[in-house]
From TrEMBL:
Family matches, as SUPFAM superfamilies: FAD/NAD(P)-binding domain
Protein known as: Amine oxidase domain-containing protein
Taxonomic source organism: Mytilus galloprovincialis (Mediterranean mussel)
GO molecular function, one term: oxidoreductase activity
Keyword list, A-Z: Membrane, Transmembrane, Transmembrane helix
Amino acid sequence: MSVDCVKVDMEGAEKMTSKKRVLIVGAGAAGTAAAYSLSKHPEKFQVEVWEKLSVPGGVACSSNIKGDAFVNYGVQGGTPSYRNTLIMMKEFGFKTSPVHMMISFGKGKTHWTNYAKSPLTEKLKNEIKHFEDVLKKINRFEFFYIFVPMYKVLKWNGFSEDFANEMVFPLTALFFGTGNRTPYVSAAIMARVFLDEDLRLFDYDSELLLSQSPEMFAFPKLEQMYETILRKSGVKICLNRPITSVKRYGTHVSVIDQDGKTATFDEILFACDAETVLKLLENPTFFERKALGNVKYYNDLILTHEDDNYMNKHYEVNKDKDQYFVRTDPTDPAKIEMSFNLSNYQPQLKNSNRNIYQTIYLDDNLREKYWTVDEVKKDKVLLETWWRQFSHSWTHFAFTVPLMRYLQGKKHTWFCGAYTLINTHEIAMISGLAAAHRLGAPYPFHHDPLAAKQFDQYLLTIHGKPRNFGCNKMTLLSCILAPLMALFALFSLLLRFCFNRKS
């Protein structure tokens, strides 16, 4: 896909059209969703998408490997509750492949799965039963537990280190991609995995913790999917075009790219990571500095390989069944490593007669002490890629999420991406649709009850707005929540001030 990106004479353009000129920075899930929604109203918007990479997709990537095959990485798939993602894919002719989640945790005496009994679940059965009650309490008092890391809750309620390190933390890392910050994840988020009626992945098993193999789906070739959606949406796409600075004025936004070319837009929509936003913005606002500056990122290494010996050494591997593997480091059980058997997950590999794995090594600051990447045979490595991942620690939900509504729309600037709430592909998609909606492109999937419900919840939380103003439940709720969220934000700022002084 090649696009001629040239400087536009805005004075002349303004004389010819009254369309709102919008720049979307980033062509990942959020940017693609925003571009798609805005493109449905060509009479209102003139849209450009600038992406620093040579392909769209952001952290959702595809790559060819030897043997005339390809793998997806960064994003593997989702659940049937990803309604916004699934509807958009269907509109552009993309199908998902159903799979049933099979997980292998631990090794030897710490091994357990979501599809069979194990000595570990028998040993910890009393704690498993107790944990169900604790999750219900967390859900009941969610407002308080947003500010409490999971390790604190486990400690307060007398859970053993074995239960925390071998069951709770690996499970949390798998669900949210939290890396080695897993103990610091907000307890309220973990409770939602089991108790949220719309979003939960599993029904809690009071004897085994997990005893189901829920249906998931695997994506088609991610690069092709994003390229097709953007191309068919009809927006102007500029690949290989990173930005160096963004200046905001009273009536417009001025953007300079790496070649020194300047373009002017009415609105800018940041669909990239929070770090990049702060680097690009000249004179960020107080709330932008506080909210975006609090998003913490870590470098992870994704190694795609075919080393059966490595997998058998570090995991309990059922090659015909298991898709996900999570293990704790034997010298420090709080440290985690994850792997996937892509041949049991990604549809293009299922009949390849190969076992192709991806192992994710978390946080490069821990490489020297904990990573076992050097044990993978070099001739078995198919692909080596780096992934910059944000942390789901309780501080994210305490110091970033409550402030996001006060950033949106200020100085012609909008923010979307999974970091605005929770690190899932669906949230990224919804965030882009929400920013487009606020710009004036009505939400396109109102006909699907679950998709609309998720969108409404996000819009209310991150933008502080109902989808439709008027005499309805969401408008009333937004009015009630507005002063409460203001107090919440104030409390967040005060808590952060105290937290920073203490550290």
